[in-house]
Amino acid sequence: MEINSVLDFEGVTEIPNGFDFTPFYDDGIHPDFRPLDSETISHFKNKDYRLISGNTSIFGATGTNRYYTHELSDSFIESKYNDIFLYILKVREMFDFSFNLYHDYKDKYTLIDKISEQSKNYINNHFNFFIYIEYTWEGVFDVKYFHQLYFYLRKNNIRPDKVIFCTNTQNINELHVNFLLDFPKKQTIKFTHFNQCMLGKVPDTIDHSNGKNTVVTEDFLLKNPVRPKKALILNRRLRIHRLLLMSLLSYDNLINQTLSSFDMNMTIDDFENVRAVLLRIRDKNQIELSDIDVENIAIGFEKLKKEKKRTLDYDDLEEVIGLGYETKEIYEQTYFSVVTETLFVDKEKFVSEKTFKPILHFHPFIILGSAYTLKYLQSYGFKTFNKWWDESYDSMENNTERFFAVYKILIDLLKKSDKELQLMLSEMTEILKHNNNLLKSFVGSKVGDIVSEQIFKIAKNNDITEDIRLF
Amino acid sequence: MKKRLITYGCSWTEGEGCDINVEKILTSDKLKNFRNENSWPKFLSDKLNISNVINNGISGNSNRKIFNQVIIDIESGKIKKEDFVCIMFSSSLRDYVPFLPDGEWITWSVKHLIDLPDKFYNSYKGNSNKFNIFLQKYKKFFITNLFSQDYYNYVNQNYIIFLQKLLSEYKIDYIMMESFENMIQEPINNDFRIAIDKSKYYGKLKYTLKDYLIDSKIIDVWESKNTSLNKVKVHPNKKGYKLIADELYKFIEKNNLN
Asked: Residue B219: inside a domain, yes or no?
């Protein structure tokens, strides 16, 4: 039982499937090129072409065999009936770019349109030949994404049940089932999930892994010194749940007990009239704020607004992205982290790299994010902190209840003395070490073995309600 | 020298979006004139030295309506041999379709369909609640299981070929082009494109005027100050319409079509 990845193009370096050659022909460039080279990518970008496909690394540790389409034949695939053949497509960045939803481009094709005819025949005619599409850039997965996928599969005469689609979105199956209630299908795509953000954070656990990362050591954890501030809250963009949290802390005059960052220039909403924004959130039933809450948050926000921007380790928050950019000092100067996740009120559940940052710096954490985030972490073997505070917030599906439950824990922790917090950390040592070691262990054959086993299960599964995670 | 420039199309021909701040305060009787004065037919006529412009662009127009209007105007003699005709096609999804109840169509554009699909599902409001619910359900089934470009490819090729043959028969000079969506899209199962005279078709059935504006890389050519096109309602502004006129003028000159 082996995994075989199939590529349409043979090149000097690996050319991803779904690669569009048109720009090269149109510009008179002979197709003797290397699409992974920065020069080629610059060529695309300078000409405003869409670079819509990339390579995935999830099968790297599985010992996958590689074949080119022209090397295969029907009889060869049939002879390998115990194996699985995967035609891998990786959405390069945003789903919208690769699936013809971004209208700043004149091109009107999708990744699926670029599959070779030969590969389409293999996909439709062999039970063990599948398309594997990976989209792990963001956690949001809109209904129109399902529509686009099914539409372009139909347009290209590809059976949906021969497609394995892997996303970062934790509850992708639940969203898919809901979609199918409205738009029933005879054949359905096989959705699965792996957390690219978690695996992407593993290299950051190593000190100076990219020449600039620094991470807290176990020695520091054991020394357990007094720290100048209590909580670490990294915000970057002030999404609405982050704005509420920071404004309330500001109103309660607690912000000085934290190390926190944000940049109002990066906010999505117009906060000139913050009361109007808060009332809109209330009207949409995203978070039910009382009149007093609205007033307090607005007062807190006005204080916060005077600062415009607050930075810690990096001044240019535009530059800071999820992977890399680790600085140990901000963790050494605080006792615990409040993770303000990317998604909070959304129907998608998504655990980003933000959640794994405290783990790699031996920090305990409270999470202001989707419901069941802690349950999700526990499913991978991470341990959380129910012994020290009430983690029932994790199962609160009501956004308002969850928000204020997290805020209450934060307030209670900020009231603790340095001595109490040191004692708490000392009691947590084993858990913090366990979590750090577990994250570090998600490499090599451990990942490869699980992925190998799961991909066969996913390929065989036709029950859309069954949640089979790739990793 | 041509006596008149006669144009047909949708909002992109009428001139919608030329200056939204002025447009929003004008009464309907003045609005069309204002738009026409600031749209590509006017700017093109200036370049071609044609003083008389008849702009038949109507916001919301479908290709079917454009097709019929051109036929009526030729048959009735409204269009004469000395005229120069420009036909700018719109989104195919605006045509009434024979496979849905009479008067039903899909939506304004592909982008509309993707971003606001409920407008299509909920558009029919008959007297029977049971039928309304059925049609809503059917439309969801249709959009995910049956909707395809095939029908439009077949119809649109026929629109183009019919009009080209008609205009040629009456020896009327013309050009055709697409505003923001392609009339014919891959895969093309019934391909009659060989019968289309592409020398008179700007973009050769592959390149719309919207593509041209995107390629110009000039950001302030759209009706909204937001440079992103990811808004459902997007038209060129006056500057955009001027660019379109320049581009069409080059096409006409290059191909000696006037």
From this structure: yes
Contact A58, A451 (CB under 8 A): yes
HEC-encoded secondary structure of A84-114: EEEEEEEECCCHHHHCCCCCCCCCCCCCHHH
A150 chain-B contacts, CB cut-off 8 A: 144
* A60 & A80 share domain: yes
Q: Search chain A and give the residue with CA nearest B140.
A: A183
pTM of the model as a whole? 0.89
Sign of CA pseudo-dihedral B58, B61, B67, B73: negative
Q: How far apart are CA A110 and CA A91, in angstroms?
A: 10
**Alpha-carbon distance values, A414 to A334, A338, A401, A407, B53 (Å):** 11, 11, 20, 10, 74
The minimal CB distance from B144 to the residues A103, A108, A183 is found for A183
Residues B152-165 pLDDT 10s:
999 999 999 999 99
Burial class (CB in 10 A: 0-12, 13-18, 19+), A76: exposed
Distance CA B70, CA A331 (A): 72
ipTM: 0.85
Chain B residues touching A48 at Cβ < 8 A: 215, 217
B48: confidence class by pLDDT, cuts 50, 70, 90: very high
**Beta strand pairing call for A190-193 and A365-368:** unpaired
Are residues A276 and A172 both part of a single domain?
no
- As a residue count, chain B comes to 258
* A209 found inside a domain: yes
Measured between alpha carbons, how far is A262 from A240 in angstroms, rounded to an integer? 12
For chain A, what is the domain count? 2
Task: Closest CB to B230: pick one of A48, A102, A154.
Answer: A102
Out of B141, B211, B234, closest to residue A106 by CB: B211
Average pLDDT rounded to a whole number, residues B8-20: 97
The owner of tokens 């039910």 is: A288
Interchain CB distance below 8 Å, A183 and B141: yes
Contacts of A27 in chain B (CB under 8 A): none
Asked whether the beta carbons of residue A105 and residue B214 sit closer than 8 angstroms, the reply is yes
Separation CA B220–CA B227 (nearest Å)? 7
**The tokens 């990294």 sit on which residue?**
A234
Tell me whether residue A469 is in a domain: no
Pick the residue from chain B with its C-alpha nearest to A147: B144
- Number of structural domains in chain B: 1
The answer to the question of residue B123 being in a domain is no
Query: Do the beta carbons of residue B228 and residue B200 sit within 8 Å?
Result: no
Interface contact A152, partner B, CB < 8 A = no
Report mean pLDDT in 10-residue bins for chain A, 471 residues: 89 76 64 55 66 83 88 95 95 88 75 92 96 93 95 94 96 96 95 93 81 89 96 90 94 95 71 82 86 92 82 65 81 97 94 95 97 97 98 97 97 97 97 97 92 95 92 93
Which positions in chain A touch B214 (Cβ < 8 Å)? 104-106
The answer to whether A105 contacts B217, with C-beta atoms less than 8 Å apart, is: no
